[in-house]
Amino acid sequence: MRAVAHACLLTLVIVGAGTGNSSASSPPISSTQIESQHPRVVVTFANEPRQSPGPAGTTGRRYAGEGYLLAQSAHRQAKRVAARYSLREVASWPIKMLAVHCVVYEILDDRPVAIVLAALSKDSSVALAEPLTEFHTLSDAKQPSAAYNDPLYDLQTNLTALDIANAHARSQGAGVRIGLIDTGVDTQHADLHGRIVRTQSSLDSHPTSAGAYRHGTAMAGLIVAVANNHVGIVGIAPLAQLEVYEACWQLQPDSDAAVCNTFTLAKALAAALDSGVQLVNMSIAGPADPLLAALVEAAVKRGVTFVGAAADPADGFPTSIPGVIAVQGLDHVFNADALSVPATHILTLRPDNQYDFESGTSVAAAEMTGVIALLISSAASRPTTRALVSLLKETSGAAASATTPSSINLNAALAKLDAEQHRGRMAARESH
């Protein structure tokens, strides 16, 4: 019986590959027909078709050529099975060699495939029922080359450590608006094309060259650099939208060192919150500030998620504010409770279409902002900051200590989020 199923599946894959006429195959099934959010099963029925046109009034169908036809009985059974088991016929064709009619059905609800197959196997009209199985080639190709065409991706060791290629199969941050409070950003950088949707400055004067935007451009690249554009690198959340709120200014040419003050940060924070961003990146640190703390606390109550760079305990802003996610590098331990990501020698953007390596907790905060964007984008409803932190900590590696931070496991967090949402849908269905 497995031979029957495999022949059915192989017909699905190779039909139409040749140029000659075939009387035993249906038109090719496109990849868009096969892909679906719902699982699919393959079912066969005994098929003894008529070899010549039937009498007037019959409903038998002819598939291809002038030979093997679909019998009325097999056609009726296929329709009956679809109605009885809540299935939708996606594709079908008769296989002359096996004398069967082969049908691909889509399961229209959340029933597990095993339950549906168990029911089908008890139906006397069904010859065989099994999952629509996927097969793969065995080419020895490197995953990074297959995942992205960005030429510098192989140098992004942080993305490999975070397993971003697999995470992007689930989420790329679409629909998430991120506020970046930093220096300005070189919005003309080719790897940021289409990702910066708004810029606003809190400064009285502005730099005359993009080179004065080193830090902000580097953070923007880590979060939203465009993927698969044949240019440069890949951002952690390449489909998220970034809004830039310029509050800091660079101290020296060709240096990332920049400063902000209470006034410029307060203006930037107020503007970001008025715009309705869901997520705010603050790759900065400084002493506790009552005005800034009040702004952040008000936004946290409204559901805005803040990500800040963990630093020396003397620097209480922003990570000492309740509700702000504190992030550190795996080899820069400031706080055993902070979340940790790779933050040493990380490739990112420089102004004027350049690239360079960056290290530090600023980098860690930007990376975590991208990670949070992926989780928010995957969630059916907007998760709270507390839920996001709990999810990342529950799925992280070994427990953190005062000297050894735990690393996050992004794909485990995404999988857990998917499972929780599935249970929620099932519970809601049962309650009705």
Compact summary:
The chain is of the alpha/beta class.
Short descriptors:
single chain; 432 residues; alpha/beta; Rossmann fold; 2 domains; 7-stranded parallel β-sheet; 4-stranded antiparallel β-sheet; 13 helices; disordered N terminus
List the secondary-structure elements in sequence, H or E: HHEEEHEEHEHHHEEHEEEHEHEEEEEHHH
For the biggest sheet, the summary is: 7 strands, parallel
Number of extended strands: 17
Radius of gyration: 28 Å
The CATH topology of the largest domain turns out to be Rossmann fold
Q: Report the helical percentage.
A: 25-40%
Strand content: 15-25%
Overall geometry: elongated
CATH superfamily of the largest domain: Peptidase S8/S53 domain
The average pLDDT value, as a whole number, equals: 82
CATH class of the largest domain: Alpha Beta
Low-confidence stretches: 1-35, 51-67, 137-145
Broad structural category: alpha/beta
Strand order of the biggest β-sheet: 8-9-7-12-13-14-15
How many domains is the backbone divided into?
A: 2
Under the CATH scheme, the architecture of the largest domain is 3-Layer(aba) Sandwich
The number of helical elements comes to: 13
Distance between the termini: 40 Å
